[in-house]
Structures are given as structure tokens and as C-alpha cells.
């Protein structure tokens, strides 16, 4: 294969899920829920399948979904996007991220991102021939992850094309504060950089996080330079449907569309109207979803603490990071490769999300988007 992709092996999610299957382990590695999403949405998809929504949908996505995506952003974040021209439906957030980077970066352009970062980021940046400039998030006061403002500033330069920001953040569970976002926004404007924001966990900010989720695009001067990305997978527990979207000013969305049309052209015809139904669910759905995940976070955090892990705070997402040092662990990759067979549980080593694996060497990520009985069983096995 090509040189620029040679450093990318099998994704860690596939590797650890395969180990979980082989050893019959409880899979707290790859982040996917073990219950289905809202029945109204499932019924709408079945209805769409039965009523002829099975051919290519329109290029930008079906109108009813684009309208629902725009309305959702107005309702929750006060952001106004025109469903015709400022919203693009994609094959999950993953395709939106790839298409945004490919559509906005020339070879050699620099992309500022925060490490640890979601694994598709480095691959998408490499596909574009761009260069990543990671800023390392490190546990600070109370274990809360933070960046060094001087390091962030130093990552910007004349070749900076865009900042790729994920908040709430996978794998750390960090929710960027308004103040942190303000620093990023200021640098984007100073250097004339775009922002691409991955907000797939926008509805999973827990009650102790202080600030609720703040989209970067809501900060002064940012809407006009931001491609805002989310997807249905997390919010509606349908990760296999791969319905995502990108929103932003028409010029930026056009650049993303130009690439998307040649990656997949279109995707998910019968699922698109179903996601439109889900986006329109009342606030009570979103509140119950968030509260349910928060309860399961608390359950897993208590269990992991009991089992002897050093548990770092998780303010949002599906994930909690642990330090294996108190258990005598020194290498998260080794730990995760043996855990499924040794203890019947699968997790993910955080080091794969860093440019410098040393930075995450002793850290292991667990997912809590599982039924309470499944989390109990995992904890029982880890404590045994
Ligand atoms: N970004 C982050 C931070 C994620 O955790 C994930 C994993 N689901 C994705 C993007 C991919 O989202 P999708 O499944 O919609 O492509
Ligand atoms: N986003 C999920 C995670 O971080 C899984 C995505 C994937 O398997 N590519 O676990």
C-alpha cells in the first residue's frame, strides 16, 4: 500500500473486539451500546424500508433529515443553518471528518488536534497529505485533562489550515470549557484557520461537568469558519446505521460535499427519515438518555475503583480512563491484550491515541454504554 498509510494497521477497536469474541469476554472496549435506540425511530426505519425508500437519496441527504438536523441545532444550541446548502448528510461522522479534511487541506497544510485523538483523525489527515500538530491533553488538578495554553499557541503557524476539535472528548471523557474553547477560537481567528468540530457526544455531558456542552461554532466569529459534525450513532444508539452530518457556512459545506460525493456518493436511504423522527423527539428523550449514561458511568467508576484501578474523571461521552499503575501495570497495550483471556473483559489501551505512545502508556479506556447487568458482570470479573 501507499507510504502515507503504512503506519496504520488494524484499528484498535477491531483488534480488541475480535479478542473479546474469541475469549467470550465482556466487551467494554469498542464503544457501542448493547440496547437499541428509540422505538419511534426503529419503527420509522422499518416503515421506510417497506414504503420504497430504498434507492439513492438526494446528494446532500433527504430534505426531511436536513430540516431536522437544522432544527435540532437551533433548538439545542441556538445555531441557525439553512437546510438547503448548509447541511450535508454523510456516512457517519467518520466520513464527514474525512471529507472535511480532504476538502479543506492542501498537501503539507497543518492540522492542529488534541491528543489523545480518535483514531480516524490521524488517518484522514494522512490521506489528505496534511500534517498533524498534536497538542497533548494531560491530567491536571483532580485528574481533569487540560492542555497547556503555550503549547496550543506553539502548535499554530503559517501553515495551519484547521483545528480538529472533539468535545466531549473520546477517549478522555473531557468536556472542553467555554474558557478553553475561547482560547482555541482566538487562535483560529488570529491565524485564519478553519475549525472542524466532532461533536458526536453532544448530548452526553454529565451533571458534574460544570458547563454544559458548548459548540465552538457558538463563540463569536466562529460560525463562519467552522464545520460542525455530529451523527445519530451515539445519541440514538444506532452506531451501525452510519448516519452523520456536517453543518457550516455554504462555502465550507460545498467543499465537504465535493469530496463526499466521490467517497460514497450517498448513504443510508431508509435510515435518513428515521433519524429525522429521532431528532424531533421531546427533551425528555435526551434527558433520559443522558441520565441513563451518567448512572452507568457512576456504576462502572465505582466498580473499577473497587477493583483497584486509578480512575480519572469522566465528564462526558461513553468512556472512562483508568491508570493501571496501582494494579502493577506498566503497559496498557500488554494489559489489554491479555485482559480478555485472563479476566474475561475487553478494554482499549489509550496509548494508541497518542503520537507519543509513552504519554498514554499506563492508561486504559473502558466503555460504559452497556446494560447495568453487563457492567456488573464485568466488574465482578475484574475484582475476582
Ligand atoms: N468521532 C468520535 C470522537 C467517535 O468516538 C466516533 C465513534 N463512534 C466517531 C467520530 C465516529 O462516528 P460515526 O460512527 O458516526 O462515524
Ligand atoms: N467510536 C467508538 C470507540 O471509540 C468505536 C468506533 C469504531 O469502532 N471505529 O470505541
Task: Describe what this molecule looks like in 3D.
The chain is built from 13 helices and 15 strands. The chain is an alpha/beta fold and about 375 residues long. It folds into two domains: about 5-30 and about 285-384, Aspartate Aminotransferase, domain 1 (Alpha-Beta Complex); about 40-280, Aspartate Aminotransferase, domain 2, CATH 3.40.640.10. The strands form four sheets. It has a seven-stranded mixed β-sheet with strand order 2-10-9-8-7-3-4, with helices on both faces. A four-stranded antiparallel β-sheet has the order 11-12-15-14. Helix 1 (about 10-25) packs parallel to helix 12 and helix 3 runs parallel beside helix 10. It starts with 11 loop residues before the first helix and ends with a helix. The mean pLDDT is about 95. Belongs to the class-I pyridoxal-phosphate-dependent aminotransferase family. Pfam families: Aminotran_1_2.
- Give the number of domains: 2
| Helix amount | 40-55%
Mean residue pLDDT:
96
Oligomeric organization of the protein chains = single chain
What portion of residues belong to β-strands? 15-25%
Radius of gyration: 20 Å
Architecture (CATH level 2) name of the largest domain: 3-Layer(aba) Sandwich
The shape, in one word, is: globular
State the major sheet: 7 strands, mixed
Summary, kept brief:
The chain has helices spanning 12-23, 39-50, 63-77, 92-104, 119-127, 149-155, 178-191, 232-235, 250-263, 271-279, 283-306, 332-343, 372-383; strands spanning 26-27, 87-91, 110-115, 131-136, 138-139, 145-146, 160-166, 194-198, 226-231, 243-247, 310-311, 319-323, 345-346, 348-349, 363-367. The protein has 384 residues and is an alpha/beta fold. It starts with 11 loop residues before the first helix and ends with a helix.
